[in-house]
Design brief:
The chain is α+β, with helices and mostly antiparallel strands. The chain contains 13 helices and six strands. It is 48% helix and 14% strand. The longest helix has 17 residues, at 57-73. 31% of the residues are buried.
């Protein structure tokens, strides 16, 4: 398995560097970065923007070739799923299942059984929010960035947390005790990034590599704080694709 992890620069194939740092290409990139603002910032935006907003020919070429490198060199990418973990064994045996609002509501109803106002809180959340994550598994691009941002996804189910917030301190405490704030690092097959996501994601990985390689060469004094953003799988992550459990207790705040 060849794994691209946006957090681990040692997993970034040298083909990416060769693409960006070959002398004639880098001179063109640097000229755009050194242009009078906002044109320099605009070029970095062109590296990462949605295709509908792509106008720069050099950025388009780099993006296309970087995507080809990713498809050629990697079978998997790293994705980070935020949740509360009580028993790692459950995930090791069963994997990560897509969100099931009905099951989550049932779990919450049991957890908050003697706290008044549950049905009112459920009604307040509304059907649109209840179904927002249905059938999906959320994944972050970067653990490093999640730590830096003190990411809220590591606090556990958005649905149950929303109910707890409406029901008060006792409900929040009970929810906090359901498990430790965690990220589960997974190996996601690259083929899933086109066919099993809510929008095509594979280009996002290669674009982030391009952007950081450009920043690292142009502004080497800047710290690497990972990559922002997330995406949704529309299928389960099997247990054999789980790589690591990361304790986020010291990098996340409870409500």
């Amino acid at each position: 398995m060849e794994l691209l992890d946006l957090d681990l620069l040692e997993t970034w194939h040298s083909d990416f560097q060769d693409l960006v740092y070959q002398q004639d290409v880098w001179l063109k990139i640097e000229a755009k970065l050194d242009a009078v603002l906002p044109q320099g910032e605009e070029f970095l935006y062109q590296i990462t923007c949605a295709f509908d907003y792509l106008r720069d020919e050099l950025a388009n070429l780099l993006r296309h070739r970087a995507r080809e490198i990713l498809l050629l060199r990697y079978s998997h990418v790293a994705g980070y799923h935020g949740c509360r973990v009580r028993d790692e064994k459950q995930y090791r045996l069963g994997g990560i299942f897509p969100s099931n609002p009905s099951a989550l509501i049932s779990k919450a109803r049991s957890l908050f059984a003697d706290i008044p106002g549950f049905e009112e809180a459920l009604q307040d959340i509304g059907p649109c929010y209840l179904s927002h994550n249905e059938g999906k598994v959320g994944l972050l691009f970067s653990c490093i960035r999640a730590k830096d941002d003190r990411n809220t996804y590591t606090r556990g189910s958005e649905l149950i947390r929303s109910l707890a917030n409406r029901l008060g301190p006792e409900a929040k405490l009970r929810f906090a005790q359901t498990g430790r704030r965690s990220l589960i690092k997974c190996a996601i097959p690259t083929e899933w990034l086109e066919n099993h996501t809510t929008f095509p994601v594979i280009g996002s990985f290669s674009k982030h590599v391009l952007e950081h390689l450009i920043r690292r060469r142009k502004w080497p004094e800047d710290d690497f704080i990972g990559v922002a953003g997330a995406y949704m799988l529309t299928r389960a992550v099997p247990p054999e694709n789980i790589l690591e459990f990361i304790d986020m207790t010291n990098f996340s705040d409870d409500d």
